[in-house]
């Protein structure tokens, strides 16, 4: 399931994610992405609304609250991506503050979306975000993150 919260020119999406590579990481992926308004005349009648831009075109910031789920111990891999380049996320940034409290770190960033947008190089969007609307959806975003983390399989340390 993907949860999407559209606030002005941005969407905050939350979903359960598994990254399959040499190891499997699983957990919650939270993204701040651009949206484009679809006006009725640009689409079939009655279908006006918002289109969430793909990461390749509209990615702004990502928080990955992931742990290694392919082996015992559930090693944390909490990180965020403060810059998107050439249609993809930039490098992983491991922040001690995020390591200490990954959900709190993420929620603090989302609570001040205008500042986050300015920090990631999208200041033109910052003034378009309704802070009251963000405040109104923050509890639902937190619930969505918790629901995604609850889906994560746990491998006992002694397995």
Summarize the structure.
This protein has 159 residues and is α+β, with helices and mostly antiparallel strands. Helices cover 31% and strands 33% of the residues.
What would the keywords be for this entry?
single chain; 159 residues; alpha+beta; six-stranded antiparallel β-sheet; two-stranded antiparallel sheet; 6 helices; 8 strands; globular
Structural account:
The chain is α+β, with helices and mostly antiparallel strands and 159 residues long. The chain has one domain. The protein contains 6 helices and 8 strands, in the order E-E-E-E-H-E-E-E-E-H-H-H-H-H. Strands 1, 2, 3, 4, 5 and 6 form a 6-stranded antiparallel sheet that branches. It has a two-stranded antiparallel sheet with strand order 7-8. Helix 3 (102-111) packs antiparallel against helix 6. The longest helix is centred in the last third of the chain and has 20 residues, at 131-150.
Secondary structure: elements and pairs:
Layout: E1 2-7, E2 10-20, E3 24-38, E4 49-52, H1 55-58, E5 59-68, E6 79-81, E7 84-85, E8 88-89, H2 96-100, H3 102-111, H4 113-119, H5 123-126, H6 131-150
Antiparallel strand pairs: 1-2, 2-3, 3-4, 3-5, 5-6, 7-8
Helix pairs in contact: 3-6
């Amino acid at each position: 399931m993907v949860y999407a919260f559209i606030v002005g020119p941005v969407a905050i999406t939350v979903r359960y994610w598994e990254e399959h590579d040499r190891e499997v990481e699983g957990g919650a992926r939270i993204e701040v992405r651009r949206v484009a308004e679809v006006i009725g005349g640009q689409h079939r009648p009655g279908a006006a609304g918002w289109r969430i831009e793909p990461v390749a075109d509209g990615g702004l910031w990502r928080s990955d609250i992931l742990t290694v789920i392919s082996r015992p111990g559930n090693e944390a891999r909490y990180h965020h991506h403060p810059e998107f380049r050439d249609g993809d996320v930039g490098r992983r940034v491991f922040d001690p503050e995020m390591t200490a409290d990954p959900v709190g770190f993420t929620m603090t960033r989302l609570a001040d979306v205008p500042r986050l947008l300015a920090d990631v190089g999208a200041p033109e969007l910052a003034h378009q975000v309704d802070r009251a609307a963000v405040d109104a959806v923050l509890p639902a975003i937190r619930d969505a993150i918790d629901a995604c983390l609850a889906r994560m399989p746990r491998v006992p340390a002694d397995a």
